[in-house]
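Form P-L/3: holo structure prediction, ligand glycyl-adenosine-5'-phosphate.
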Amino acid sequence: MDDNLLEKVVALCKRRGFVYPGSEIYGGLAGTWDYGPMGSLLKKNLKDIWWKDMVQMRDDVVGVDTAIMMNRRVWEGSGHTQFFTDPLIECKICHQRFREDKQELVAEHEKSHVGQKVEWTEPRTFNLLVKAYLGVIEGSQNEIYLRGEITAGVHVNFKNIIDSTRVKIPFGVAQIGKAFRNEITPGNFTFRSVEFEQMEVQYYVRPNDEEADKWFEYWKQNRMDWYVYLGINKDKLRFKDHEKLAHYAKRATDIEYEAPWGWDEVMGIHKRTDWDLSRHEEFSGQSMKYRDQENSDEYWPWDIETSAGVDRSILFFLLDAYTEEENRVLLKLHPKLAPYKAAVFPLLANKPELIEKARGIFEVLRSEFMTAWDDRGNIGKRYAAQDEIGTPYCITVDFQSLEDDTVTVRDRDTAQQVRIKTDQVAAHLAGFLQ
Ligand code: GAP
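OUTPUT (holo model):
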């Protein structure tokens, strides 16, 4: 692996408008990132593909979009105020704080104090929930938490969902949204941020191990296949069972990617059992049970959760797609993920006939998908600029186009060109983009 891969991707993201450091002109805010014009398209594409596969194309999953701010009792019910903690230690020399379980960062820090023996404070539990104040008076009654995972919004609406839809066990509830964590050591670009987005399905099944483990295996493979289908090198993905379980899980497996800093988590599959529904029933006093008409039974279903980070997935797609060739840099993103699906170029900017013809093609394509227009500089530079942002196809209108109504379509990965009739361009690309 290229030793500087992460630095190169970070630089490309800034240079080409994928990701910028948050609040940069004010000196930044650690662990926050802003998505630029390319990054926001990539992010939207990823979320749209996920939603289509998880909700639109499935009979057994419905979607919701719940509030970020919730009654603070929700977090007592879910166990987060008590258990959502990391072990924090502080360097007694410079007072920098670290997660005790992040051994590599701790060792690296010790090395930075050359010639000194670093001593650490005793570990203390540090709660990751981000506090906020709502209302006109600051005080503990007005203290709320920004959600530390998007999950609770689904569980607290369990009754609403079963009462307002026709879902039947087993069924899932999907959601995409922001989560916030007071991470002790944000880092590795967007990998560990304090504000990030998650895509989750809470999949409710009959409450027994056999049923739950069957669905656990199903979702593990389903999610792994999804990343491979979207183009990630499958040799760089693996399953990793959790040794230390989150407070809500009885079993958990991560899908990991081989990042420049080592294997690390892309997403997790968790067997949450009835932790959430039973606790919310206990803390709210409202029934959270499901009435199973088939078995004339009433119970808390068990939840098998798939939880993926949007930002982390994007980072791994970018790291995986980054390619250097002799005379170019390209992002070999799956066409479905690529910010622009195509770019249209008139060969020369000062020939009105070429502009007019190219513009006609551009207008047709942009009504179907994101299409870039570029009429500046030489054609080689225009190809290079599109390669770097991952545009899979470039269409050039040249003088031959004026004679026989054909254009060239250049493939990003092979740099090969084919010549096709103008009226076949949209259909030609649609074939690749499906
Ligand atoms: N609802 C379960 C849950 O939140 P998690 O393993 O804590 O489980 C799920 O988080 C996913 O959210 C992770 O696999 C990762 O992709 C993403 N994620 C978690 N913390 C993150 C952070 N600080 N920055 C970016 N992504 C994060």
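COMMENT: The first strand starts at residue 19 and ends at 21.
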